[in-house]
Amino acid sequence: MTAIISTPYSRDLGDELRRLRESCTSFNGRAMAVQLGWDPSKVSDIELGKVRASEIDLVQFLTTCGKDIDFFEEFRRRYHNAFDLYFAQVPDNLRTLAMTEAMATKIFSYKVMTVHGLLQTERYARELFVDSHIEAPEDIEEYVQGRME
């Protein structure tokens, strides 16, 4: 377990681990630590995305949550770049995207055909959501407001 600067994506994956613990076990954080033979702060730091867990730590954690090797491999693939400050994974979680953009100090690349999120107007953001056909029409206004915030 290595202490590193957390990123929005590491915190998002830490939240995912916490939700797995809560939904797949009857353990609170301290009880999970006892089960794994860890210090309680280790469980907390991993679930908060403050430290990078080793692969062995992840296997132990996910196995305790009843997850199989396929789940572990998929999670490990996502976790690989979670602490990279210069890697913005395209998240499903709008909060992660907002935190990533809020921490940005430079734009390293851009798409000529799409205005960067920090420069979008409300009308432009709404049209992007409408044109994508990914979001349910009734959710678009909520996402536009999230983008503007």
Summed up:
It holds the Pfam family DUF5753. The protein has 8 helices and 2 strands.
Describe this structure in words.
The chain is an all-alpha fold. The model has no long low-confidence stretch (mean pLDDT 84). It has two domains: 2-79, lambda repressor-like DNA-binding domains (434 Repressor (Amino-terminal Domain), Orthogonal Bundle), CATH 1.10.260.40; 107-148, no CATH class. 17% of the residues are buried. Helix 2 packs across helix 3 (40-47), helix 4 packs across helix 5 (69-79) and helix 7 crosses helix 8. The chain contains eight helices and two strands. Strands 1-2 form a two-stranded antiparallel ribbon. Pfam families: DUF5753 (PF19054), HTH_31 (PF13560). InterPro entries: DUF5753 (IPR043917), Lambda_DNA-bd_dom_sf (IPR010982). It comes from Lentzea atacamensis. Residues 94-149 form the DUF5753 domain.
CATH class of the largest domain: Mainly Alpha
Q: Helical content, roughly?
A: 55-70%
Task: Categorize the overall geometry.
Answer: elongated
**Second CATH tier, the architecture of the largest domain:** Orthogonal Bundle
The number of strands is 2
Largest sheet: 2 strands, antiparallel
Spell out the CATH superfamily of the largest domain. lambda repressor-like DNA-binding domains
Cα(first) to Cα(last) distance is 34 Å
Q: Strand content of the residues, in percent?
A: under 5%
Low-confidence stretches: none
Write down the domain tally.
Answer: 2
Overall radius of gyration: 18 Å
Helix/strand order = EHHHEHHHHH
Report strand order across the widest sheet: 1-2
What does the average pLDDT come to?
84
Quote the CATH topology of the largest domain: 434 Repressor (Amino-terminal Domain)
Pfam family, one: HTH_31
Domain DUF5753: 94-149
Protein name: Helix-turn-helix protein
InterPro entries: DUF5753 (IPR043917), Lambda_DNA-bd_dom_sf (IPR010982)
